[in-house]
Design brief:
binds uridine 5'-triphosphate
Length: 304
Protein backbone atom coordinates (compact mmCIF):
# COMPACT_ATOMS: atom_id res chain seq x y z
CA UNK A 1 0.00 0.00 0.00
CA UNK A 2 1.33 3.47 -0.86
CA UNK A 3 2.58 5.52 2.05
CA UNK A 4 -0.01 8.18 2.86
CA UNK A 5 0.92 9.24 6.41
CA UNK A 6 3.13 12.23 7.19
CA UNK A 7 4.42 13.35 10.56
CA UNK A 8 4.99 17.11 10.79
CA UNK A 9 6.96 18.18 13.87
CA UNK A 10 6.04 21.73 14.92
CA UNK A 11 6.85 21.59 18.64
CA UNK A 12 10.21 23.39 18.64
CA UNK A 13 10.62 26.58 20.64
CA UNK A 14 12.03 28.66 17.79
CA UNK A 15 14.45 30.47 20.09
CA UNK A 16 16.47 31.79 17.16
CA UNK A 17 13.45 33.84 16.12
CA UNK A 18 12.77 35.50 19.46
CA UNK A 19 11.00 37.79 20.22
CA UNK A 20 8.66 36.95 17.27
CA UNK A 21 8.17 33.42 18.57
CA UNK A 22 7.59 34.26 22.22
CA UNK A 23 3.85 33.65 22.01
CA UNK A 24 3.32 32.41 18.44
CA UNK A 25 4.72 29.39 16.62
CA UNK A 26 7.47 30.04 14.11
CA UNK A 27 5.60 27.68 11.79
CA UNK A 28 2.78 30.26 11.64
CA UNK A 29 5.00 33.15 10.55
CA UNK A 30 3.94 34.37 7.10
CA UNK A 31 6.13 33.87 4.06
CA UNK A 32 4.46 36.00 1.40
CA UNK A 33 0.74 35.55 2.01
CA UNK A 34 0.61 32.22 3.83
CA UNK A 35 2.00 30.83 7.07
CA UNK A 36 4.99 28.53 6.57
CA UNK A 37 3.18 25.39 7.71
CA UNK A 38 0.36 25.90 5.16
CA UNK A 39 2.91 25.54 2.36
CA UNK A 40 4.17 22.33 3.97
CA UNK A 41 0.66 20.88 4.20
CA UNK A 42 -0.20 21.86 0.60
CA UNK A 43 3.02 20.29 -0.65
CA UNK A 44 2.22 17.04 1.20
CA UNK A 45 -1.37 16.95 -0.08
CA UNK A 46 -0.07 17.40 -3.65
CA UNK A 47 2.30 14.48 -3.10
CA UNK A 48 -0.48 12.04 -2.20
CA UNK A 49 -0.43 12.30 1.59
CA UNK A 50 -3.88 11.68 3.08
CA UNK A 51 -3.17 11.56 6.81
CA UNK A 52 -1.15 14.17 8.60
CA UNK A 53 0.03 14.09 12.19
CA UNK A 54 1.30 17.28 13.78
CA UNK A 55 3.61 16.95 16.75
CA UNK A 56 2.71 20.09 18.67
CA UNK A 57 3.72 21.62 21.96
CA UNK A 58 2.98 24.54 24.27
CA UNK A 59 1.76 27.67 22.49
CA UNK A 60 1.01 25.90 19.19
CA UNK A 61 -2.82 25.92 19.28
CA UNK A 62 -3.00 28.43 16.42
CA UNK A 63 -1.72 25.68 14.07
CA UNK A 64 -4.71 23.49 14.93
CA UNK A 65 -7.06 26.46 14.52
CA UNK A 66 -5.55 27.32 11.16
CA UNK A 67 -6.41 23.93 9.65
CA UNK A 68 -9.87 23.76 11.21
CA UNK A 69 -12.95 25.05 9.39
CA UNK A 70 -13.87 28.46 10.83
CA UNK A 71 -17.64 28.61 10.28
CA UNK A 72 -17.98 31.92 12.08
CA UNK A 73 -15.54 33.55 9.69
CA UNK A 74 -17.22 31.96 6.66
CA UNK A 75 -20.64 33.22 7.80
CA UNK A 76 -19.20 36.67 8.51
CA UNK A 77 -17.67 36.94 5.04
CA UNK A 78 -20.94 35.83 3.43
CA UNK A 79 -23.07 38.19 5.50
CA UNK A 80 -20.84 41.16 4.77
CA UNK A 81 -20.82 40.52 1.01
CA UNK A 82 -17.18 39.51 0.72
CA UNK A 83 -17.64 36.06 -0.76
CA UNK A 84 -14.61 36.56 -3.01
CA UNK A 85 -12.41 36.18 0.09
CA UNK A 86 -13.75 32.66 0.70
CA UNK A 87 -11.31 31.27 -1.83
CA UNK A 88 -8.50 32.24 0.55
CA UNK A 89 -9.92 29.56 2.84
CA UNK A 90 -10.03 26.80 0.21
CA UNK A 91 -7.13 25.02 1.89
CA UNK A 92 -9.49 24.19 4.79
CA UNK A 93 -11.33 21.82 2.48
CA UNK A 94 -8.32 19.73 1.41
CA UNK A 95 -9.15 16.04 1.74
CA UNK A 96 -6.72 15.45 4.55
CA UNK A 97 -7.26 13.80 7.90
CA UNK A 98 -5.48 15.66 10.71
CA UNK A 99 -4.16 14.17 13.92
CA UNK A 100 -2.42 15.99 16.74
CA UNK A 101 -0.26 14.84 19.59
CA UNK A 102 1.90 16.81 21.96
CA UNK A 103 5.58 16.61 22.66
CA UNK A 104 5.52 17.45 26.34
CA UNK A 105 9.18 18.42 26.59
CA UNK A 106 11.18 19.82 23.73
CA UNK A 107 13.85 17.14 23.66
CA UNK A 108 14.72 17.50 19.99
CA UNK A 109 13.49 16.53 16.53
CA UNK A 110 14.20 12.81 17.09
CA UNK A 111 12.14 12.84 20.27
CA UNK A 112 9.32 14.67 18.44
CA UNK A 113 9.24 11.91 15.79
CA UNK A 114 9.19 9.27 18.53
CA UNK A 115 5.99 10.89 19.89
CA UNK A 116 4.28 9.72 16.66
CA UNK A 117 4.96 6.04 17.36
CA UNK A 118 1.52 5.18 18.83
CA UNK A 119 -0.24 6.39 15.67
CA UNK A 120 2.31 5.28 13.11
CA UNK A 121 2.79 1.80 14.54
CA UNK A 122 4.31 -0.67 12.13
CA UNK A 123 4.12 1.23 8.84
CA UNK A 124 6.51 3.44 6.88
CA UNK A 125 5.84 7.17 7.02
CA UNK A 126 6.99 10.58 5.84
CA UNK A 127 8.55 13.24 8.07
CA UNK A 128 8.31 16.84 6.84
CA UNK A 129 9.71 19.63 9.01
CA UNK A 130 7.07 22.25 9.67
CA UNK A 131 9.51 25.15 9.36
CA UNK A 132 10.88 24.37 5.87
CA UNK A 133 9.27 25.04 2.50
CA UNK A 134 10.53 23.22 -0.59
CA UNK A 135 10.42 25.34 -3.76
CA UNK A 136 8.93 28.80 -4.30
CA UNK A 137 5.25 28.49 -3.36
CA UNK A 138 5.92 24.86 -2.43
CA UNK A 139 5.98 23.75 -6.06
CA UNK A 140 7.55 20.38 -5.37
CA UNK A 141 6.67 16.70 -5.60
CA UNK A 142 9.82 15.62 -3.78
CA UNK A 143 7.84 13.57 -1.24
CA UNK A 144 6.05 11.63 -4.01
CA UNK A 145 9.45 10.87 -5.63
CA UNK A 146 10.87 9.78 -2.27
CA UNK A 147 7.93 7.48 -1.54
CA UNK A 148 8.31 5.92 -4.99
CA UNK A 149 12.02 5.20 -4.36
CA UNK A 150 11.33 3.91 -0.87
CA UNK A 151 8.92 1.35 -2.24
CA UNK A 152 10.83 0.44 -5.42
CA UNK A 153 14.18 0.01 -3.63
CA UNK A 154 12.90 -1.64 -0.46
CA UNK A 155 14.61 1.12 1.49
CA UNK A 156 14.57 1.78 5.24
CA UNK A 157 15.47 5.43 4.98
CA UNK A 158 15.07 7.93 2.13
CA UNK A 159 16.41 11.43 2.73
CA UNK A 160 16.11 14.57 0.57
CA UNK A 161 19.32 16.53 0.03
CA UNK A 162 20.22 19.94 -1.32
CA UNK A 163 23.65 20.78 -2.68
CA UNK A 164 25.21 23.62 -0.66
CA UNK A 165 28.42 25.61 -1.20
CA UNK A 166 31.46 23.87 0.33
CA UNK A 167 31.96 26.55 2.98
CA UNK A 168 28.41 25.92 4.29
CA UNK A 169 28.73 22.17 4.99
CA UNK A 170 29.72 23.02 8.58
CA UNK A 171 26.07 24.02 9.28
CA UNK A 172 24.28 20.86 8.13
CA UNK A 173 23.95 17.09 8.27
CA UNK A 174 25.89 15.96 5.20
CA UNK A 175 25.41 12.80 3.09
CA UNK A 176 28.07 10.15 2.71
CA UNK A 177 27.11 8.60 -0.64
CA UNK A 178 28.40 5.21 -1.78
CA UNK A 179 31.44 5.44 -4.07
CA UNK A 180 31.49 7.77 -7.03
CA UNK A 181 29.86 11.03 -7.92
CA UNK A 182 26.28 10.89 -6.57
CA UNK A 183 23.54 11.26 -9.18
CA UNK A 184 20.01 12.53 -8.58
CA UNK A 185 19.27 9.32 -6.68
CA UNK A 186 22.11 7.62 -4.81
CA UNK A 187 22.89 5.04 -2.20
CA UNK A 188 23.27 6.68 1.19
CA UNK A 189 25.75 4.99 3.51
CA UNK A 190 25.95 7.50 6.37
CA UNK A 191 25.28 11.05 7.50
CA UNK A 192 27.92 13.29 9.05
CA UNK A 193 26.61 16.04 11.32
CA UNK A 194 28.22 19.45 10.73
CA UNK A 195 31.57 18.21 9.36
CA UNK A 196 34.57 20.48 8.85
CA UNK A 197 35.09 21.63 5.26
CA UNK A 198 38.01 19.21 4.83
CA UNK A 199 36.18 16.22 6.27
CA UNK A 200 32.83 16.67 4.51
CA UNK A 201 32.10 13.54 2.43
CA UNK A 202 29.94 15.58 -0.01
CA UNK A 203 28.19 18.94 -0.34
CA UNK A 204 24.75 17.38 -0.02
CA UNK A 205 22.89 18.75 2.99
CA UNK A 206 19.85 17.12 4.62
CA UNK A 207 16.77 19.01 3.38
CA UNK A 208 13.84 18.60 5.80
CA UNK A 209 12.02 15.67 4.15
CA UNK A 210 12.39 11.98 5.05
CA UNK A 211 10.66 8.67 4.39
CA UNK A 212 11.31 6.23 7.21
CA UNK A 213 10.55 2.62 7.98
CA UNK A 214 9.22 1.91 11.49
CA UNK A 215 12.72 0.59 12.30
CA UNK A 216 13.51 4.21 13.12
CA UNK A 217 11.50 4.02 16.34
CA UNK A 218 13.69 1.37 17.99
CA UNK A 219 16.74 3.35 16.88
CA UNK A 220 15.29 6.52 18.41
CA UNK A 221 14.47 4.69 21.66
CA UNK A 222 18.11 3.74 22.03
CA UNK A 223 19.60 7.06 20.87
CA UNK A 224 21.31 8.98 23.65
CA UNK A 225 20.69 12.72 23.84
CA UNK A 226 23.41 14.55 21.92
CA UNK A 227 24.24 18.23 21.62
CA UNK A 228 22.05 20.46 23.82
CA UNK A 229 20.50 17.38 25.47
CA UNK A 230 18.41 16.76 22.35
CA UNK A 231 17.62 13.41 20.73
CA UNK A 232 18.68 13.86 17.11
CA UNK A 233 16.85 12.23 14.21
CA UNK A 234 20.16 12.15 12.33
CA UNK A 235 21.74 9.95 15.01
CA UNK A 236 18.89 7.44 14.78
CA UNK A 237 19.10 7.36 10.97
CA UNK A 238 22.83 6.69 11.26
CA UNK A 239 22.06 3.81 13.58
CA UNK A 240 19.58 2.27 11.12
CA UNK A 241 22.16 2.55 8.32
CA UNK A 242 24.95 1.14 10.49
CA UNK A 243 22.73 -1.84 11.37
CA UNK A 244 22.43 -2.73 7.68
CA UNK A 245 19.35 -0.68 6.80
CA UNK A 246 19.14 0.45 3.18
CA UNK A 247 19.55 4.19 2.67
CA UNK A 248 18.68 6.21 -0.42
CA UNK A 249 19.40 9.89 -1.02
CA UNK A 250 17.46 12.06 -3.47
CA UNK A 251 18.60 15.48 -4.60
CA UNK A 252 16.20 18.39 -4.79
CA UNK A 253 15.95 19.81 -8.31
CA UNK A 254 17.27 23.32 -8.90
CA UNK A 255 13.64 24.56 -8.90
CA UNK A 256 13.12 23.01 -5.46
CA UNK A 257 15.28 25.14 -3.21
CA UNK A 258 14.76 24.61 0.49
CA UNK A 259 13.53 27.62 2.44
CA UNK A 260 14.27 27.02 6.11
CA UNK A 261 12.85 29.84 8.17
CA UNK A 262 14.65 28.86 11.39
CA UNK A 263 16.73 32.04 11.67
CA UNK A 264 16.12 35.65 10.70
CA UNK A 265 18.60 35.64 7.80
CA UNK A 266 16.92 32.73 6.02
CA UNK A 267 13.43 33.91 7.03
CA UNK A 268 14.01 37.35 5.50
CA UNK A 269 15.34 35.77 2.30
CA UNK A 270 12.35 33.43 2.04
CA UNK A 271 9.84 36.20 2.66
CA UNK A 272 11.50 38.51 0.14
CA UNK A 273 11.66 35.86 -2.57
CA UNK A 274 8.01 34.81 -2.14
CA UNK A 275 6.78 38.40 -1.97
CA UNK A 276 8.74 39.34 -5.10
CA UNK A 277 7.18 36.37 -6.92
CA UNK A 278 3.65 37.30 -5.83
CA UNK A 279 1.43 37.69 -8.92
CA UNK A 280 -0.53 40.60 -7.43
CA UNK A 281 2.03 42.51 -5.37
CA UNK A 282 5.38 41.35 -6.78
CA UNK A 283 5.79 43.92 -9.52
CA UNK A 284 5.10 46.90 -7.30
CA UNK A 285 7.44 45.46 -4.67
CA UNK A 286 10.22 44.96 -7.22
CA UNK A 287 9.98 48.63 -8.18
CA UNK A 288 10.03 49.63 -4.52
CA UNK A 289 13.08 47.46 -3.73
CA UNK A 290 14.93 48.74 -6.81
CA UNK A 291 14.30 52.28 -5.72
CA UNK A 292 15.56 51.51 -2.21
CA UNK A 293 18.73 49.65 -3.16
CA UNK A 294 19.90 51.26 -6.39
CA UNK A 295 21.97 54.41 -6.07
CA UNK A 296 19.85 57.48 -6.76
CA UNK A 297 20.85 59.68 -9.75
CA UNK A 298 22.38 62.38 -7.52
CA UNK A 299 24.91 59.93 -6.11
CA UNK A 300 22.97 59.54 -2.89
CA UNK A 301 22.33 55.85 -2.08
CA UNK A 302 18.58 55.24 -2.06
CA UNK A 303 18.81 52.96 0.94
CA UNK A 304 20.55 54.82 3.73
P1 LIG B 1 14.80 23.29 14.90
O1 LIG B 1 15.93 22.36 14.80
O2 LIG B 1 14.88 24.54 14.09
O3 LIG B 1 14.60 23.65 16.44
O4 LIG B 1 13.48 22.49 14.53
P2 LIG B 1 13.67 24.68 17.21
O5 LIG B 1 13.70 24.27 18.64
O6 LIG B 1 12.31 24.77 16.58
O7 LIG B 1 14.34 26.12 16.97
P3 LIG B 1 15.52 26.88 17.76
O8 LIG B 1 16.77 26.10 17.51
O9 LIG B 1 15.11 26.96 19.21
O10 LIG B 1 15.53 28.23 17.12
C1 LIG B 1 13.22 21.90 13.27
C2 LIG B 1 11.75 21.42 13.27
O11 LIG B 1 11.58 20.42 14.28
C3 LIG B 1 10.60 20.81 15.22
C4 LIG B 1 10.46 22.32 15.06
O12 LIG B 1 9.15 22.78 15.42
C5 LIG B 1 10.77 22.56 13.59
O13 LIG B 1 9.61 22.46 12.78
N1 LIG B 1 11.01 20.41 16.59
C6 LIG B 1 12.26 20.70 17.05
C7 LIG B 1 10.11 19.73 17.40
O14 LIG B 1 8.97 19.44 16.98
N2 LIG B 1 10.51 19.39 18.66
C8 LIG B 1 11.75 19.68 19.17
O15 LIG B 1 12.03 19.33 20.35
C9 LIG B 1 12.65 20.36 18.32
Amino acid sequence: MAIDLAVVPVAGQGTRLLPSTKSQPKEMLPVGRKPVVQYVVEELANSGIGRLMFITGPGKASIENHFDTNWELITFLRETGREELLEELDFERQSLEYFYTRQRRQLGLGHAVLCARPLVGDQPFVVALGDSIIGVNAQSNIVARMVERFEADGADVVVAFEEVPREEVVRYGIARPADGEPGDVFELTDLVEKPSIDEAPSQLAVAARYVLSPRIFDALESTEPGKGGEIQLTDAIRRVLADGGRGVGIRLKSSERRFDIGNFGSYFRAFTEFALADPRYGEELRAFVRQRVEPAGDGDAGCS
